[in-house]
Write a structure and sequence with these properties.
heterodimer; A: 322 residues; mainly alpha; 70% helix; globular; B: 478 residues; two-stranded antiparallel ribbon; NADH:quinone oxidoreductase/Mrp antiporter transmembrane domain-containing protein (chain B)
Chain lengths: 322, 478
């Protein structure tokens, strides 16, 4: 029994309680709060698992932006939905969990191949081959932080496609706001005007968020941080500014807005095409410039991620279709 | 390989630039630009096909020039090159319809169809389980956005589609995570020799199969498909039924024929084949009873995917690599025929002003070209010679009939054929009912009707290039 076991068990138990509470809280507002708390616990667990990059991203996106998104959406819904089915789904979920775990355990008992392969043996070396490969290749990648090297060099194609995922999600969101019909009455009312404390606090918080975001972006090449984390912090700043009415609508009709939305993916794709045409192959950065290229890609990606995420969270008719 | 990448990059660039241009271009101009870029992508895909066929073996590319395993690998096989050509061709045919038919389509369709094209191309080329997950996400998101193009009445099916699609992605991702934890590899070809039939592998494969079957609307996880495909705009329905559901099917095929250990594949094979047989009958019966034209066509997608699932199941059961020829011939023949069916159904709906099957009375007289397209494409679904559907069915039946022990499977194919004939002939019979003609609502759009016929003619033309296609899919010299 190691001393770390106690906090680990507490975190796992907390996670389960939060998840259960978020699913089965009687009030919608309680459920949302518990969901945000769930995100924070997940972030803590990632930090405990030595994955600070994931912890940062989870705290910013999973707990922060998703929380705002939920509250924003809840305002558009009728007060409480009918909850008649709750008891049934409660027992259903419990039954499913028990049956699934039992089936897995029984299967594990009858199938001893895992023991033979030494997988359940704590002494065996579980470091994957890829980890060793990646660690060895980091010095040639142009950045010092292994996670950034994986995201923007070894598996840059995944990251490029992930940027497109965000962009396509925005494309889908825009379909919910039909073009041509610009009656402002349809848009939901902004948040209560009398949030004096909130708007005063926002004026202090937003510049801090921008500075922290910039720091995370700059730090990404040598330590945990990078475009996704920085972008989501900037998005958080934009979201609270927009919600307190300090920021005008982000209008889709503005060329600058559209440019910042597509800049990340477009630049990344252009780099890929350029390396395929003039270089050694698709996304093979020329050795001497790889650090520079990665930083430029990250800057454009941060911009796109920030704008896209904030549009996804607070985008309304006037933002997306004006 | 560069031609394949070109075929992938052109639509992505085009879509991004269209998004950037906003409302600066008129919708017609946008459509013209997309069609030109699709033609360029088609030409590039054709050269990639030549390259793949000449190479004789799969061409691999380690992205970033890193060591195998560390880098994501792209694979250009003759199959993936053929699918690149097929994707570009479908986009071209449907884009021509969307751009030239009278009803037109919303501006956003063009950027989204470019993105769909790019996502599919990325999927066909990927040989990495995690990369395949991202392409699945891309595919699902664009497909949902395109369903929502139809406006508020499509929001509910689109939302259901989105939620199921995300749940399916998570199933798949959990499976990938388990496999990575067990073997420490993500590359398909590196995983293939290492996988063992143990409990984690089984669990991972089961989760991934559930997710992929949900995404590909394979029976019994197909219930989201008919409302989503029937409520989308006509051109989108054609793309969704003809192309999008084939993406997850491709991953399912890669997973079971390459990654899974053969003992497990032999165990799952009969299950998949029986699910395919049930899909053929159940989907066909639902199509037969459906009161709406587009729902009928959507249910016929569920039924026809049964053939593909059956081919996959039998491929795994008997470990017969040539069954994959039948699988992919079905996919291509079904894609072309289904595009024609949906376009014809949409045109008939708007010309006759009705969504109901009864409204087609006398359609042979009022909308002859669209009805002809419907009947011709339906002939390929039934498998009448010499259509593409017949070609695929022939390749599927050959190994089944050669061994008396396999004859029960032939009954499944026979039953499926009868049911498909029943729902196609139901429409054709109603359309010949000239005693009580349902009059035209508006003058038919001639261009639209002829463009709906084009894919149907191509699927019958597939028989002419049948030998070439079979040799190409077999990986031999062309």
């Amino acid at each position: 029994m190691t001393p770390e076991l106690l906090p680990d068990l507490t975190l796992s138990l907390l996670l389960l309680i939060m998840a259960w509470g978020a699913l089965y809280a009687p009030q919608r507002s309680d459920a949302m709060t518990l969901f945000i708390a769930f995100g924070v616990v997940v972030a803590l667990i990632w930090a405990r698992l030595d994955a600070p990059d994931l912890a940062l991203a989870e705290a910013a996106i999973g707990a922060g932006l998703t929380g705002v998104l939920l509250m924003h959406a809840a305002r558009a819904l009728p007060d409480e939905l009918h909850q008649d089915y709750r008891t049934a789904s409660y027992w259903g979920a419990l039954g499913f969990t028990v049956v699934a775990s039992l089936m897995f355990l029984v299967h594990l008992l009858y199938d001893d191949s895992l023991f033979n392969a030494g997988l359940l043996d704590t002494e065996s070396d579980l470091t994957p081959r890829l980890r060793t490969l990646a660690d060895a290749a980091v010095p040639e990648s142009g950045v010092e932080h292994p996670v950034t090297a994986v995201l923007l060099n070894f598996r840059a194609w995944d990251t490029l496609l992930e940027l497109l995922v965000l962009l396509f999600a925005l494309g889908g969101l825009r379909q919910l706001f039909p073009s041509g019909q610009s009656d402002d009455s349809a848009t939901t009312a902004s948040w209560p005007e009398s949030m004096t404390l909130m708007s005063a606090w926002t004026r202090v918080l937003a510049p801090l968020l921008v500075v922290t975001g910039g720091y995370l972006l700059w730090r990404g090449s040598s330590a945990p941080g990078g475009a996704f984390q920085a972008g989501s912090l900037l998005a958080a700043a934009a979201v609270i500014l927009r919600l307190t009415g300090l920021l005008p609508p982000l209008r889709w009709s503005s060329l600058w807005l559209r440019l910042s939305v597509v800049a990340g993916a477009l630049f990344f794709l252009a780099v890929a095409a350029a390396t395929a045409i003039w270089g050694d192959g698709w996304l093979t950065y020329p050795g001497a410039y790889s650090g520079l290229l990665i930083i430029s890609i990250e800057i454009f990606a941060t911009l796109s991620i920030a704008i896209t995420l904030s549009l996804l969270v607070i985008g309304e008719q006037e933002d997306l279709r004006s | 390989m560069n031609f394949a990448l070109l075929s992938l990059a052109i639509p992505l660039f085009c879509g991004l630039l269209l998004l950037l241009s906003g409302r600066a271009l008129r919708t017609r101009t946008t459509g013209f630009i997309v069609i030109v870029s699709t033609v360029a992508s088609l030409v590039a895909a054709w050269f990639a096909l030549q390259e793949a066929a000449a190479a004789g073996a799969d061409i691999m590319l380690n992205l970033g020039g890193w060591e195998t395993g560390l880098a994501i690998r792209l694979r250009l096989s003759s199959l993936s090159a053929l699918l690149l050509v097929f994707t570009a061709l479908m986009h071209l045919l449907i884009g021509l319809y969307a751009g030239l038919s009278r009803d037109g389509i919303k501006r956003d369709y063009w950027a989204l169809s470019c993105f769909l094209h790019g996502s599919l191309a990325a999927l066909w080329l990927s040989a990495d389980l995690f990369n395949l997950y991202i392409t699945l996400e891309l595919l699902g998101l664009t497909a949902v956005a395109m369903v929502a193009l139809a406006g508020p009445k499509a929001y509910k099916p689109a939302a259901n589609y989105l939620i199921l699609s995300l749940a399916a992605s998570l199933f798949y991702l959990l499976g990938v995570a388990l496999l990575y934890g067990r073997y420490g590899e993500l590359d398909v070809l590196l995983l293939a020799p290492r996988t063992q039939a143990d409990v984690i592998t089984r669990l991972a494969l089961l989760l991934m199969t559930t997710g992929l079957m949900l995404k590909a609307a394979l029976w019994p996880l197909h219930l989201w498909l008919p409302p989503a495909h029937a409520s989308a705009p006509t051109a989108v329905s054609a793309l969704l039924s003809g192309l999008v559901v084939k993406g997850p099917l491709f991953i399912l095929w890669v997973l079971w024929s390459e990654v899974a250990p053969p003992t497990l594949a032999q165990q799952i094979g009969p299950v998949l084949a029986i699910a395919g047989m049930i899909a053929l009958t159940a989907g066909g019966l639902s199509a037969m009873r459906s009161p709406h034209i587009k729902t009928l066509v959507a249910y016929s997608t569920v039924a026809q995917l049964g053939y593909a699932l059956m081919a996959l199941g039998l491929l795994l059961t008997w470990q017969l690599p040539q069954m994959h020829i039948a699988l992919w011939l079905f996919v291509i023949a079904h894609g072309l025929a289904k595009a024609s069916l949906f376009l014809a159904a949409g045109e008939m709906q708007s010309s006759l002003g009705t969504k109901r099957v009864d409204g087609l009375r006398g359609a042979t007289q009022t909308v002859p070209v669209a009805m002809f397209a419907f009947a011709v494409a339906g002939g390929s679904l039934i498998g009448l010679p010499p259509s593409g559907g017949f070609l695929a069915k022939w390749v599927l039946l050959e190994p089944i009939l050669s061994e008396p022990g396999n004859w029960p499977w032939a009954m499944g194919v026979l039953l499926g054929t009868l049911v498909s004939a029943a729902y196609i002939f139901r429409i054709v019979a109603i359309s010949f009912d000239r005693a009580q003609i349902n009059p035209l609502d508006i003058n038919p759009d001639r261009v639209g009707h002829w463009l709906a016929l084009l894919p149907a003619l191509m699927v019958w033309g597939m028989a002419l290039s049948g030998e070439w296609l079979i040799r190409l899919l077999a990986g031999g010299p062309v």
